[in-house]
Amino acid sequence: MEHIITPKVEHVKLLNKYPEKKSALGTLYLTATHLIYVEQTNNSRAETWVLHHHIMSVEKLPLTAPGCPLLIRCKTFQLLHLLFQKERDCQDVYQSLLHLSQPVKEDELYAFLYTPHQNQEDRRQGWEFISVANDFSRMGLSNEYWEISPLNKNYEICSTYPSILGLPKNASVAVVTGSAKFRSRGRLPVLSYYHKDTKAAICRCSQPLSGLTSRCVEDEQMLQAISQANPNCPFIYVVDTRPKLNAMANRAAGKGYENEDNYSNIRFQFQGIENIHVMRNSLQKLLEVCSMKSPSMSDYLTGLENSGWMRHIKSVMDAGVFLAKAVSEERASVLVHCSDGWDRTAQVCSLACILLDPYYRTIKGLMVLIEKEWISFGHKFSHRCGHLDSDPKEVSPVFTQFLECVWQLSEQFPCVFEFNERYLIEIHNQVYACQYGNFIGNCQKERLDMRLHEKTFSLWPHLLKNQHLYRNPLYRRSLESTVLRPSTLPLHFKFWCGMYNHYDGGMHPKQSVLDQLLSLTQKQVEGERTMTELQRQLAVADGVLPDPSGLISTPTKQDSPCEKTPTAPVVQSNGSCAPLINGDAEEAVPGAEKCNEEEGAES
Amino acid sequence: MELSEHIKTANVEDVTLRRPFHPALRGTLCVTSHHLLFSDGKDEASWQLLILLKNIDAIEKRAVGSSGTITIKCKDLLVLQLEIPGMEECLNIASSIEALSSLESVTEMYPFFYRPSHLTLSGPWGLSSMEQYYKQTERLWDRWRISTVNSDYSVCLSYPSAVIVPREVDDDMLIRSARFRQGGRFPVLSYCHHRNGMVIMRSSQPLTGANKKSCKEDELLLRAVIDGSKLGYIIDLRSAQQAQQARMTGGGFESKSCYSDWKRFHRHHERGKVVQESLIKLVEACSDPSHSVDRWLSKLENSKWLSHVHSALCTAGLVVECVERDGHSVLVHGSEGTDNTLLVSSLAQLILDPASRTVTGFLCLLEREWIQAGHPFQQRCAHSAYSHARLKQECPSFLLLLDCVWQVWRQFPLALEFSEALLLRLAQEVYASNYGTFLCNSEQERCAAGVKENTHCLFQSLLRPDIEEQYLNPLYEPTDLVIWPSVHPQSLQLWTGLFLRWTEYAQNMEEAREEVWSIVKEHREQAGPDRTNNMLSTHCDTLTPFENLMDELTIL
């Protein structure tokens, strides 16, 4: 709170992106967690809540005649253009926001202040709700080829890996530790996903410390062991997701990639995904395109092309498709790495999992996947999202790209995902919001040291509680068992307006098929429930069933695991959405009034 | 020359057919006067493919040893390959296709021979006319009248026999105004807004020429349109510079001095060849197998197709703004008044008028604003995206309209009663059809060729209850509001339903469509039987499979 110089400023203008539209006049409040803008007209009141952690940058623009402008850019791609009457107020707000949006210490993050109505037991169960160990059991592990090993339980072999690791059964401890020493930051080859049908596995690691000539017998044996763990294929693919040039440049620094001559039965592949810096710049350019005032079609398409964003999304998708094909069609195991094995590797492995396994296309499955491939394997959320005031060169939209790839898939396959676009956007908002502890810290060990499980709450039960908002009504379970084979022709990649122009309501379809179908299916579920209830009462009346003292539970579709988990926090408006702010006042917007007060669900 | 004389080889056995995303098939190929028929067996259960020869835009022949391959590129964007044993047969088939797919004479075309047992020629032809529109629109009765000055098509060759004009303007004045407009297309009423009585008029450019001629009657006609109110808007679909240049060739624009009550806006729209080339480039880009995103985006940009969609929607939005928001009448024209003019005025109506958003209303709109209004379909749709023939007067204006309507549908998925399937069907029918609806270039030509007497009407057929369901939007909820589409480039998308029609992607979308239907049906069943009867009538069984086959142009 000590950063807030002026908690309330009146007569602040909120400028509309389109100059011909009227700007709003209202009051700005700063709280410990949010910036709140309240527009009060005669009979309506519109609130815009922006979480401090969502603020990416605050910029004071040159003084203009009508006032002192302040431009706030958000990590959720919201853009606020405020106009203050007094330079002094503007400066105060600017100063405050600089501090509030980028705390210096972890315990200043929202999650450490946030206390939903939950007791310790709820909190504990909430954290245990999604378990990577359970997912390994679901895959059928341990089995005769793979074991789930506690070798890293004290994070001694690799500090950025999880405490349990999937390792080939016939890899000895010496091989494991030897291999870890030959890999960048000790991130040795371990199991990411085991495909039951083909017995092929996806493994992940970081680049080998091969330099120009070095080799390591244990590492070679490790790859051999991975290969032997798959009886269906005599070789494994080793996929370096980087462009070849980047990988070669690393050799000069004593790192690099596997020399095919040293490893037996490997097939080596580059995939050409660019590094975090290229991706950061690309997003920057994309956002410039998104915020152009009134571009022509050509400006827009040229801008889109020049940003390179779609090209990068496609490169991630291509790599994911390569993995899924290798596993499902060639029955070959794959070892994936990039440099450190926590950015591109995470993208590609998790995408391949989604393509291969319908479980990860469910609401809960996606949580498990994110928990496994991203959180537990040490994707550096704190650095990549810039939660704290830290090196801006570490920030990169790697996770956003993964979510976009999933969205691109859902556009090609409208019936195979249990969740809808809003789920992806909500997860994205939550990653940056730091309201829950899941995405704080850079690896499991760090989280343990921060005692996040004691001090913060888990996001997953909260999402599950709201899952009715995130359902895809077109989801068809009957299609479950299929491996997805998306087309990766460029024309299948669309610009994700719902994400990058999320707050430009005027650009979105004015009527939502999703809402319509959700409301239809919701009524259906309710109808079925009433029907079952009526039948039950009839049965009771007929004496078929015993007295209704609650012994008979009515089976309903809502009877999902979420009700067994602790009730998620009661949410005060947490600012992950601002329903009214950019909703263009187009006059014929049937249904647009249905602004959802629920967080994150902008209609 | 009889059509059959073009056929030297009517049947070939052991032909291999290759289609995208389907296994190759072997079977028999037949050429008839109007069709290409492929069948993979002799018995009744065989799979058949029937293609109207008119649907074929281009063919490519290639010799492979003693056999030949013909690649067939259809106007509905399907591409097929036929491997024909025997070089001679291959060449014969190819030359038959070439000759029979480009028939010039209207009465030789298939609609004049299409006689399905479930339709009779004596039935009503067409859905709507200017007279009917007038009768239905009470607001018009006071100040407007039907004029039959063009009943023998002598005043304007491309106008229908009846048009709606201001009551106080007599037929002589119309004749004079027609002489002052290109092609005789004098200003006529196209739409009257139900909320405020403001109208959309359309015409061709005035023939002011280099020495700034004027025409008193034309001025009076337009003055009568706004009837004492201060202002009307003229939306000229050319840039100001183009309009100026048009004077050099005898055309021009309405000058401020002569038409003081009218305010003129210029909006540049590409036309003719440029738009046709856009379509060709876009389709080429869509079939580019390259995996470079940059290349795709630059080809998409370079085709300019989406730019045309963008400008059409922008200008239609402007018309709507004038009529609905400002409460003024509008006159729309470009040069000839037969392409972009119709595009803009019909889009504006779709946005403004709830009645034009039903299946019937939309088809009526197309009939009035495109067919009767004299869009030269035969010239514009002679070739589609694949033809290497030198372009004459081809221009996909109608396809552009359908694309724009699809964009509106995507943004207001509940507001239109019809589905994407109807738009796709129309996109197909306009290039090659069993029906006479899109034949010829004007009412006058249709009349001379006896189209109404000798062919069936597509629109009548689409409205038959057993056919209509597939064209209904299951989520339709009528709204009286103006449905103002967003014209941000981010809001407009490539119409994948059309341009990726023959890919796997289309199959996934079809699954989604079925799923939507099943959700809606389940919901309606629960909501009670009373709501379900007319909406959900299942396909009736009166159609034999073959007739069904004939009803679709290519593949079932």
From TrEMBL, chain A:
<dbReference type="InterPro" id="IPR011993">
    <property type="entry name" value="PH-like_dom_sf"/>
</dbReference>
<protein>
    <submittedName>
        <fullName>Myotubularin-related protein 8 isoform X1</fullName>
    </submittedName>
</protein>
<dbReference type="GO" id="GO:0005635">
    <property type="term" value="C:nuclear envelope"/>
</dbReference>
<feature type="active site" description="Phosphocysteine intermediate">
    <location>
        <position position="338"/>
    </location>
</feature>
<dbReference type="InterPro" id="IPR048994">
    <property type="entry name" value="PH-GRAM_MTMR6-9"/>
</dbReference>
<feature type="region of interest" description="Disordered">
    <location>
        <begin position="545"/>
        <end position="603"/>
    </location>
</feature>
<keyword id="KW-0443">Lipid metabolism</keyword>
<dbReference type="GO" id="GO:0046856">
    <property type="term" value="P:phosphatidylinositol dephosphorylation"/>
</dbReference>
<feature type="domain" description="Myotubularin phosphatase">
    <location>
        <begin position="126"/>
        <end position="500"/>
    </location>
</feature>
<dbReference type="GO" id="GO:0005737">
    <property type="term" value="C:cytoplasm"/>
</dbReference>
<dbReference type="Pfam" id="PF21098">
    <property type="entry name" value="PH-GRAM_MTMR6-like"/>
</dbReference>
<dbReference type="GO" id="GO:0106018">
    <property type="term" value="F:phosphatidylinositol-3,5-bisphosphate phosphatase activity"/>
</dbReference>
<feature type="binding site">
    <location>
        <begin position="275"/>
        <end position="276"/>
    </location>
    <ligand>
        <name>substrate</name>
    </ligand>
</feature>
<dbReference type="GO" id="GO:0004438">
    <property type="term" value="F:phosphatidylinositol-3-phosphate phosphatase activity"/>
</dbReference>
<dbReference type="InterPro" id="IPR003595">
    <property type="entry name" value="Tyr_Pase_cat"/>
</dbReference>
<dbReference type="InterPro" id="IPR029021">
    <property type="entry name" value="Prot-tyrosine_phosphatase-like"/>
</dbReference>
<feature type="binding site">
    <location>
        <begin position="338"/>
        <end position="344"/>
    </location>
    <ligand>
        <name>substrate</name>
    </ligand>
</feature>
<keyword id="KW-0378">Hydrolase</keyword>
<dbReference type="InterPro" id="IPR010569">
    <property type="entry name" value="Myotubularin-like_Pase_dom"/>
</dbReference>
<dbReference type="InterPro" id="IPR030564">
    <property type="entry name" value="Myotubularin"/>
</dbReference>
<comment type="similarity">
    <text>Belongs to the protein-tyrosine phosphatase family. Non-receptor class myotubularin subfamily.</text>
</comment>
<dbReference type="Pfam" id="PF06602">
    <property type="entry name" value="Myotub-related"/>
</dbReference>
From TrEMBL, chain B:
<dbReference type="InterPro" id="IPR030564">
    <property type="entry name" value="Myotubularin"/>
</dbReference>
<dbReference type="GO" id="GO:0019903">
    <property type="term" value="F:protein phosphatase binding"/>
</dbReference>
<dbReference type="GO" id="GO:0010507">
    <property type="term" value="P:negative regulation of autophagy"/>
</dbReference>
<protein>
    <submittedName>
        <fullName>Myotubularin-related protein 9-like isoform X2</fullName>
    </submittedName>
</protein>
<dbReference type="InterPro" id="IPR029021">
    <property type="entry name" value="Prot-tyrosine_phosphatase-like"/>
</dbReference>
<comment type="similarity">
    <text>Belongs to the protein-tyrosine phosphatase family. Non-receptor class myotubularin subfamily.</text>
</comment>
<dbReference type="GO" id="GO:0005737">
    <property type="term" value="C:cytoplasm"/>
</dbReference>
<dbReference type="InterPro" id="IPR011993">
    <property type="entry name" value="PH-like_dom_sf"/>
</dbReference>
<dbReference type="GO" id="GO:0046856">
    <property type="term" value="P:phosphatidylinositol dephosphorylation"/>
</dbReference>
<feature type="domain" description="Myotubularin phosphatase">
    <location>
        <begin position="124"/>
        <end position="499"/>
    </location>
</feature>
<dbReference type="Pfam" id="PF21098">
    <property type="entry name" value="PH-GRAM_MTMR6-like"/>
</dbReference>
<dbReference type="Pfam" id="PF06602">
    <property type="entry name" value="Myotub-related"/>
</dbReference>
<dbReference type="InterPro" id="IPR010569">
    <property type="entry name" value="Myotubularin-like_Pase_dom"/>
</dbReference>
<dbReference type="InterPro" id="IPR048994">
    <property type="entry name" value="PH-GRAM_MTMR6-9"/>
</dbReference>
